[in-house]
């Protein structure tokens, strides 16, 4: 008789930027899953560790992380040297994990940890190494932001040449060895889901209900645009090929226009006056060239950061007990 298989060990990674008010509730929701539970399809699983990655936000999240690590034995604080952003912070937590599977959750209470069970069932049924949340309701943001989010993912689909970008979601289940490998080799500025797409096998989705966030979103318009631009720049070289194709098309158009003028000169002996249109064309083409050169420069910048060894993230010791805290402790004593 074969021995009963061990439960699937889940490592939960939570990047923390402004979690002072929301983290206690999230941990209270995760706590029941730290004992073995059975999924709807009969698979056994257990959350063995929860990584709270401190990304140096503007609130007092560090204090809350300390308190939660004392309250729950399975909470593992991860301290970054400075603010790196959501995706690098998530990768730092992945690199620190040891579970069979990695679950990534936002700190804001928008996602229900109960949906993890359904994610695991889908992964095992479809032999998928990555499972994204497929929201069953509209995200609790403004209509403009939701439209912009869908549009940006469609643009990324065109650049990547697939439909996977439409599945991207920060609530995801990743096979542990896949997540840790991506965290080990991903370069500076990489978009996490693009990096996962480079190595993941089958990618699936599972239904999840989005809840109203317990606080306002930490993403301003500027940060959302930067987020989208990083997706574009790390999606591969398809954007550069688009620049090349556009340049070829403009050059062919110029040849055709020149031939048209030549034929008209031969047939009628006249050339149309068009200095205004000529200047417009020059300005448009010059603007396109400068724009495309800017795109190429951005790609070069990403490559330079990687070549120079700029770290994606840097994990340090707890600043509350390290050398930086000694002066404060002497003042308090």
UniProtKB/TrEMBL annotation:
InterPro entries: Glyco_trans_2-like, Glycosyltransferase_2, Nucleotide-diphossugar_trans. The keyword Cell membrane applies. Keywords: Cell membrane, Glycosyltransferase, Lipopolysaccharide biosynthesis, Membrane, Transferase, Transmembrane, Transmembrane helix. The chain crosses the membrane at residues 240-263, 275-300. Residues 11-140 form the Glycosyltransferase 2-like domain. GO terms for cellular component: plasma membrane. GO terms for biological process: lipopolysaccharide biosynthetic process. One of its GO terms (molecular function) is undecaprenyl-phosphate 4-deoxy-4-formamido-L-arabinose transferase activity. Belongs to the glycosyltransferase 2 family. This is Glycosyl transferase. It comes from Litorihabitans aurantiacus. The lineage of its organism: Bacteria, Bacillati, Actinomycetota, Actinomycetes, Micrococcales.
């Amino acid at each position: 008789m074969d021995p009963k298989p061990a439960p699937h060990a889940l490592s939960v990674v939570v990047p923390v930027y402004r979690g002072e008010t929301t983290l206690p509730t999230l941990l209270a929701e995760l706590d029941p899953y730290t004992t073995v539970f059975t999924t709807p399809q009969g698979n056994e699983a257990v959350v063995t560790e929860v990584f709270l990655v401190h990304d140096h936000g503007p609130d007092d999240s560090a204090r809350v992380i300390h308190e939660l690590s004392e309250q729950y034995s399975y909470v593992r604080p991860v301290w970054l040297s400075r603010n790196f952003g959501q995706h690098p912070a998530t990768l730092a937590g992945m690199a620190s994990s040891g579970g069979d599977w990695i679950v990534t959750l936002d700190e804001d209470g928008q996602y229900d940890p109960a949906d993890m069970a359904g994610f695991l069932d889908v992964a095992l049924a479809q032999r998928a190494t990555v499972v994204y949340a497929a929201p069953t309701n509209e995200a609790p943001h403004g209509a403009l932001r939701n439209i912009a989010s869908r549009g940006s993912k469609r643009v990324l689909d065109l650049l990547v040449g697939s439909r996977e970008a439409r599945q991207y979601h920060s609530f995801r289940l990743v096979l542990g060895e896949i997540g840790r490998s991506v965290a080990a080799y991903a370069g500076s500025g990489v978009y996490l889901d693009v990096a996962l797409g480079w190595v993941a096998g089958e990618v699936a989705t599972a239904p999840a209900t989005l809840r109203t966030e317990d606080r306002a979103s930490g993403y301003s318009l500027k940060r959302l645009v930067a987020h989208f631009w990083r997706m574009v720049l790390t999606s591969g070289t398809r954007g550069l090929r688009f620049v090349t194709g556009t340049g070829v098309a403009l050059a062919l158009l110029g040849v055709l226009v020149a031939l048209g003028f030549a034929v008209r000169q031969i047939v009628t002996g006249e050339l149309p006056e068009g200095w205004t249109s000529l200047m417009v064309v020059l300005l448009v083409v010059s603007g396109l060239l400068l724009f495309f050169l800017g795109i190429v420069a951005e790609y070069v910048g990403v490559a330079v950061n990687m070549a120079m060894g700029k770290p994606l993230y840097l994990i340090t010791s707890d600043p509350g007990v390290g050398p930086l805290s000694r002066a404060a402790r002497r003042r308090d004593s």
